[in-house]
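Summary of Year 1 activities. Much of the first year was spent building the evaluation harness for sequence design. The harness presents a backbone, in tokenized form, and records the residue chosen at every position. We chose the following record to illustrate the format because it has been used consistently in internal testing since the harness was completed.
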């Protein structure tokens, strides 16, 4: 068994049940001094977390089996798109260290697809997270995306 931190589409219980049938929800928590971003393809970017003092990212902690981790490795494009990091989170008033997939360097900011965003939004709502955090990440991506496109037009 291993603890896995979900902050993006794997917050969605239905998706995780399909992908990782032996995974079990453990608790909710937050990663302090990180923020949620969307990176990758310009118009179908995916979620990642980046260090950002004073911000927090809500997370769902799963207990996963080795078979679940292998399925997640395939889904997350490990080790090419995402790497694995051990990250300390706050959950139930305690500190816990768990594995998270964090996007590798070199991917530009982009906009999530409607499907991806709705999958993550459902996960936020299921877990009772503040959806403003998700919408702020989308707004940041949109602003940076528009700025970049304006520079290209000049």
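For this record, the design step produced the sequence shown next.
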């Amino acid at each position: 068994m291993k603890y896995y931190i979900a902050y993006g589409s794997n917050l969605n219980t239905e998706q995780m049940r399909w992908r990782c049938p032996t995974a079990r929800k453990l608790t909710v928590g937050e990663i302090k001094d990180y923020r949620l971003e969307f990176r990758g393809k310009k118009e179908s970017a995916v979620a990642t977390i980046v260090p950002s003092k004073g911000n927090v990212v809500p997370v769902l902690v799963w207990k996963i089996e080795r078979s679940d981790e292998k399925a997640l490795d395939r889904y997350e494009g490990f080790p090419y798109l995402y790497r694995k990091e051990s990250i300390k989170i706050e959950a139930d008033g305690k500190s816990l260290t768990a594995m998270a997939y964090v996007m590798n360097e070199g991917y530009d900011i982009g906009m999530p697809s409607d499907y991806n965003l709705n999958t993550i939004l459902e996960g936020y709502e299921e877990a009772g997270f503040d959806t403003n955090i998700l919408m702020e990440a989308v707004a940041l991506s949109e602003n940076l995306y528009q700025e970049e496109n304006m520079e290209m037009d000049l």
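The mean pLDDT is 94. Quantitative recovery figures across the full test set are reported in Table 2.
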